[in-house]
Amino acid sequence: MSKFWSEVTKHTEPYVPGEQPQSTSIIKLNTNENPYPPSPKVLKAIKQLVNGDLRLYPSPTAADLKLTAAKYFGVNEKQVFVGNGSDEVLAFSFLGFFNPGEEIFFPDITYSFYPVYANLYGLNYREVPLAEDFTIPVEQFFNSPGGVIFPNPNAPTGLALSLDQVEQILQHNREKVVIVDEAYIDFGGESATALIPKYENLLVIQTLSKSRSLAGMRIGLALGNEQLIEGLERIKNSFNSYTLDRLALVAGKAAIEDVNYFNETREKIINTRERVAKELKDLSFHVLESKTNFLFIRHGTVPSQLIYEKLKEQGIYIRYFNKNRIDQFVRVTIGTDEEMDTFIKAIKQIIGK
Ligand SMILES: Cc1ncc(COP(=O)(O)O)c(C=O)c1O
Q1: Residues with CB under 6 A from ligand 1
Q2: Domain range spanning residue 21?
Q3: I want to staple 105 with a disulfide (CB 3.0 to 4.6 A). Which of 8, 60, 144, 311 is the partner?
Q4: Domain co-membership, 31 together with 52
């Protein structure tokens, strides 16, 4: 605490990201990164731009990247917003669409950045309890006084709502913005982008960090009707005109264009996930049905914290949340087949099989 801190600084409770150890010898299954490198076309595009032009500012409108995304998602470029990771897009959205004094709804077990933004902006919020089986209770999200935000699929549970369920939430919040955070949608969920023409209150947020292997470049996007996107532009241009740098702009474009590579790598991850889920079930783990690139699991008898600590001793990092209702679980990102074999071998040792 410093006497120089503003009231906001004093009272904010920042988000704590998963550990980011820099050693290359560890197996990193703790922050839902993609185990495969970005498309070779992305790397080529970046290398071509590493030149003297870096002295120039990037495009403040990111028009090229937006056009590419618009084509891919079947919307027009005025329906696309891009930002420095979806975290930034989320931060702008909370400020752009939610008002203090009007309670917003999000699940009690969800992405832990949501309460951080809500507190930072002085928003009132209700943490709607997930059902016993960790599914999102759709009706509890109806008629929010301030708006709604939830990830689909949810994190850290990995469970997805159907498009029909997402639509019910939209129908029952017509006067408020409903934000669907689709960070993990490409690993098996149904995207709400199909509903954009029908719902002016829908904002879909996606990221290139997960299914397009670009966590290190920080590229996120939002899709929705033109007025919502214009709102986000107003907020962005009140903070920083150049949120994406020159390299990120070309990397994002190349990543979205290389559909073959995207499909190949995400299918590999889905196949690995299904195989590992089955192996874990055979080892007496309770495994939630994941539509993401991670598994949320609990062993029948061995405590999760112990599993987390023992794996860490062996250089295998997974995520443990010391939080009510989920402290019996650990979250494991899907790595390569080889990494997951090492993980399963270590797990067998820990649980004594
Ligand atoms: C649900 C959810 N939303 C958003 C993000 C942020 O992703 P990024 O800022 O890398 O785009 C994450 C990252 O783990 C996430 O789990």
Answers
A1: 32, 85-87, 111, 151, 155, 181, 183, 207, 209, 215, 220
A2: 7-37+260-350
A3: 144
A4: no
| Residue to substitute in 15, 209, 214 for testing ligand 1 pocket (most ligand atoms within 8 angstroms of CB) | 209
CATH number, domain with residue 134: 3.40.640.10
Give the residue from 228, 258, 288 where a domain finishes.
258
Q: Check if the beta carbon of residue 15 is closer than 8 Å to that of residue 113.
A: yes
In a shared domain, residues 138 and 232 = yes
Q: Give the pLDDT confidence of 260-282 residue by residue, as tens digits.
A: 999 999 999 999 999 999 999 99
Give the pLDDT confidence of 92-150 residue by residue, as tens digits: 999 999 999 999 999 999 999 999 999 999 999 999 999 999 999 999 999 999 999 99
**Centroid of chain to Cα 69:** 18
Rounded Cα gap, residues 313 and 316, in angstroms: 7
β-strand partners of 105: 126, 148
Residue 330 phi/psi, 5-degree rounding, is -130, 155
